[in-house]
Design a protein that fits this description.
The protein has two helices and twelve strands; from the N terminus they run ααββββββββββββ. The chain is α+β, with helices and mostly antiparallel strands. The protein folds into two domains: 35 residues; 146 residues, Lipopolysaccharide (LPS) transport protein A like domain (lipopolysaccharide transport protein A fold, Sandwich).
Length: 193
């Protein structure tokens, strides 16, 4: 009986000491936990970028930008925070369209470019597209936007609309929502603001 009480007391004492050991030893510093669990995004930065895009051995586009910031996270993308200029080439390596934007972002895995802040696209014949933001899909060679855009033809006709889809050379331009009084003849030299 004495031996049984001793064993029981010893067991309870050991369990209490081990429990206290675990409770007191599990101290987690919040900063340490944050450094272990925070997502790390790597960043590269390059100045005065000139990039050439080719498909099947043919030059398709030439992009220049004063600053590029490339981020490696869940989605790999390159951001152009200062400005972006791109020349698009036809099969004969002649410029068919050029594009300017104050800001842009290239999503490498999607082969898509998102442009915003004063986007202007002009083709070889002088047709001009102006919008606040624009997507360019490299695979389909299409420009598209869900927001307001204006398309000015070489004969000075303005087509404002919402929800644009256009081929890279402007051979086909489609608005999903035509605004009232959408065709305006403009005879001035400057694009209306």
């Amino acid at each position: 009986m004495i031996n049984t009480n001793f064993n029981r007391n010893f067991f309870y004492t050991a369990a209490l000491l081990i429990g206290c050991f675990f409770v007191l030893s599990c101290e987690n510093d919040e900063r340490t936990i944050r450094t272990w669990t925070d997502k790390v995004v790597l960043k590269e930065e390059a100045i005065n970028i000139e990039s050439l895009l080719s498909q099947d051995g043919k030059l398709k586009a030439k992009m220049t930008a004063p600053l590029m910031q490339r981020y490696f996270g869940d989605t790999i993308y390159a951001e152009f925070p200062k400005s972006l200029h791109c020349d698009f080439f036809d099969d004969s390596a002649r410029i068919e369209t050029w594009l300017d934007s104050r800001k842009g972002k290239y999503f490498e895995n999607l082969n898509k470019v998102y442009l915003w802040d004063s986007v202007v696209v002009i083709n070889r014949t002088g047709d001009t597209l102006k919008c606040k933001d624009l997507w360019w899909d490299q695979n389909t060679k299409l420009f598209y936007s869900d927001n307001y855009a204006e398309y000015l033809t070489k004969d000075k006709k303005i087509y404002p609309g919402k929800g644009l889809e256009a081929t890279q050379d402007f051979s086909r331009v489609t608005f999903r929502e035509i605004l009232p009084n959408s065709t305006i003849i403009y005879s001035g030299n400057d694009f209306p603001k």
